[in-house]
Input
Amino acid sequence: MSCHLHYRAAQRSRLLLTGLLGALLAALFFADLATGSSGLGRREIIEGLLAGPGAEDPQALILWSLRLPMTLTALCVGAALSLAGLGIQTITANALASPSTLGITSGASFGAALAITAGATIAGELWLGTIAAAFAAALLICALILALGSLRGMTPATLILAGIIMNFFFMALQQLLVYLASPETAQLINGWTFGNLERSGWLSTAAAAGAVLLGLVLLAPAAWQLTTLSIGEERAKSLGVKVARLRLLVFTTASILIAASVSFIGTIGFVGLVAPHCAKLLLGDDQRFLIPASILFGGIILLLSSLIAKLLSSGAMLPVGIVTSIAGVPFLLILLLRSRRDC
Output
């Protein structure tokens, strides 16, 4: 009976912590909306939001055309990258695995660089051609990693190895493009790789939000299987979990999440690595709570990075990818030291 009571208390504690994370996310969302070069107070933001997207009031125009798409994109991209990172870490049983580790982000960067160099356009728009090329390249890299991994069987080691190969290969190709390109084109390529929320729009919001929704639909029903897999592959198999099929599902879902995120605003480092670990430290390994908590932490980290990027740079917004990378390095060092201590 005492074990049952302890379990119920732990579940209530996890629900409370998840609720607190949601409240923190809401506070950061409003703070990010309120931060910008044109000062808007709390009352003006509420009035602008209530006025709707069709209002001609300057405050409403700023909110609905600039700030709201940027803030929503930060939230959804952070959530998508975190959910992808959680899935990758679970199926590879590797605490240091992330979207960047598997080379998907470098593949998307190369696709964008190729489109910029070639001047590829869709409906006469270079940015649409760049987005389409980045998305297609990210999905192509995922297919290549799956093909390489299937040569020896879908194991964590082969997935990681195939991802590392893809990562270095496409980083080298992108550097070659930058070297051969004109100074103007090289600047455009480098600017895309920074990860900049100023490229956000309603299209980027819809893509990232749709990917997160798809990820939840596909991964939430498999929460208990993922929890079992995190305990150990042999244990999962003994309980009837089809590990190879589960890895394929998770990797495909993670690929869509990453492609939909980085294709629009560029490379965002460390979110997919840091956010799942924060959720695990707070809530444990139960994927029923870990999946929503990782989504919340991803949104929190990227919204906080967006706030910092705005505050550090007056006028133009600092690329948020720079902020996440600088902030992620100390966390990665701590994680490496902890891993070494555990060994």
